[in-house]
Amino acid sequence: MAKFVPQSEMSLSDQVKVRREKLQNLRAEGLDPFVQTRFEVTADSVTIKNQFDAMEGQSVRLAGRLMSKRGMGKVTFCDLQDREGRIQLYARFDEMAEADFQRFKKYDIGDIVGVVGDVFKTERGEISVRVHEATLLSKSLLPLPEKFHGLTDKETRFRQRYVDLMVNPEVKQNFVIRSRFIKYLRNYLDSRNYIEVETPVLNTIAGGAAARPFITHHNTLDIDMYMRIATELPLKRLIVGGMERVYEVGRIFRNEGMDPKHNPEFTTVELYQAYADFHDMMDIAEGVISGAAQEILGTYQVRWMGEDIDLTPGWRRMTMAQAVKEYVGIDFDAISDDAEAVAAAKAKGVELAEAAEKTWGNALYACFDQKVEEHLIQPTFITMYPVEVSPLTKRSPKDPRLTERFELFICHSELANAYSELNDPLDQRERFMKQVEQRERGDDETEMLDEDFLTAMEYGMPPTGGMGMGIDRCVMLLTGADTIREVILFPTMKSLPNDK
After folding, report:
1. Rounded to whole angstroms, how far apart are CA atoms 81 and 493?
2. In the prediction, which pLDDT does 136 show?
3. Maximum Cα–Cα distance for the chain, whole Å?
4. 223-227: strand order across its sheet
5. How, if at all, do strands 316-319 and 380-386 pair?
């Protein structure tokens, strides 16, 4: 007689070989598991546990993946994982057809099965399903990670999310929260008479943001095209056309670096409202995030990146100059000369980008970017950005060096960016031209000149408030995730040497 070798002691290649042999044997018996097309499911693991008193003794039909097996001889216990959770299966030799019981004992961890049985509670008080019939619906030809260690390597988890979700069921909760957040966001905007629209992913001009695009080629037209870096300019065209309140939840693509807060493709919502300004957008940003926290989590208090965050409405609002004065010690409101502003910034160890003009506005922004963001833990709206870094934003009537713009920071991370949109086509052309000059000096992340957008503006765009909000970062906040990869099901990964 062959010696029994526990699966955990076999090499991976041996386990795979055994599983394939089992599949061949099933096929030889005319029981190929891959020919199954349907299995009626009448209950799930969580419903059975939550409603045990009402369901005890009832016949149910469950389907899912076997996650563990124990017991030998006449009784076998298994844990079945379905969409909602896990429940114990109890299979006994005299409560099933003999052939079915013998086959059930040979099923492997990872196999997908359908069972018919009745709900009961074991002597130890474990709510279970007593199996009377079992059907193998799909054979797992690869073993799951060893149960005592699971799948913990982050690189493998993100690369093989399907296995991650199998063996780390708590991971699913992040994506449940993500789905609920997007649903809440849509309901919030829909209830305010916004219309959800779709705009092109492929464009002949990459506009609406300062970012490096991905370039592709259209064979029929024989032209290079850009995957969108923002949805801003098409949505503003719709405002010109009279739609007045529009939004798009969409994927954005930027050919930039990767870190815990950045993935080359990510999801945003951009929204535009005619006859509104950036103050209205602040109210919406605060309402969406705080309201979602209360509805999804039941609290305004969250913990993110080691900090306790209070999302209770009434968030702090301060100008960029006020923030720089508080955290850096330079009062830009008292400086009017470009050279003086640049010198003050350099005295604090702040350096301007090589391609940037040495102006008051660029000096102010460099101070904020390099010295202030790290201090912004609790929700804070930073307002009144320099015109140099806001090419699509309306100037402040009080100070033409500044624009009516805000960015929302929570735990030193930007979650939203909003403007009182520039609607003067002559001013817009002038700013586009400055962006073109900056691009010619070597900055390939500046705006491209979009003549069609300027034409649209010349027909007349009403005063408009607009905002872009990062869906992924909002979900990171609500889930406490420390990396964007934890909230994107299939994050961008470097190819392995054997990938084809």
Report:
1. 28
2. 97
3. 93
4. 202-203, 223-227, 215-218
5. parallel
Retrieve residue 355's tokens. Answer: 């391609």
Q: Which among 61, 145, 136, 149 is positioned nearest to 106, based on CA atoms?
A: 136
Q: Which amino acid makes up residue 489? A: L
CB 42 within 8 A of CB 60: yes
Predicted local distance difference test score (pLDDT) of residue 151: 64
Q: Which two tokens stand for residue 71?
A: 């017991």
What is the C-alpha separation between 466 and 280, in angstroms, rounded?
A: 9
Rg (CA), the chain: 29
CA 412, CA 125: separation in Å to the nearest integer?
A: 49
Q: Which token pair is 492?
A: 């961008």
Minimal CA–CA distance to 491: which of 227, 260, 268, 263? 263
β-pairing, 195-196 vs 245-253, is parallel
Of 417, 421, 401, residue with least CA distance to 361: 401
For residues 177 and 476, is the Cβ–Cβ distance under 8 A?
no
pLDDT of residue 446: 75
Please report the DSSP string for 414-439 in residue order: EEEEEEEB---HHHHHHHHHHHHHHH
Q: Are 66 and 78 in contact (CB under 8 A)?
A: yes
User: Minimal CA–CA distance to 191: which of 284, 299, 321, 316?
Assistant: 284
**Amino acid 3: pLDDT:** 44
- Cα–Cα distances (Å) from 327 to 8, 387, 390, 411, in that order, read 58, 22, 22, 16
In whole angstroms, how far apart are CA 10 and each of 4, 14, 144, 150? Answer: 11, 6, 13, 17
- What residues in the chain have per-residue pLDDT under 70? 1-9, 147-152, 498-500
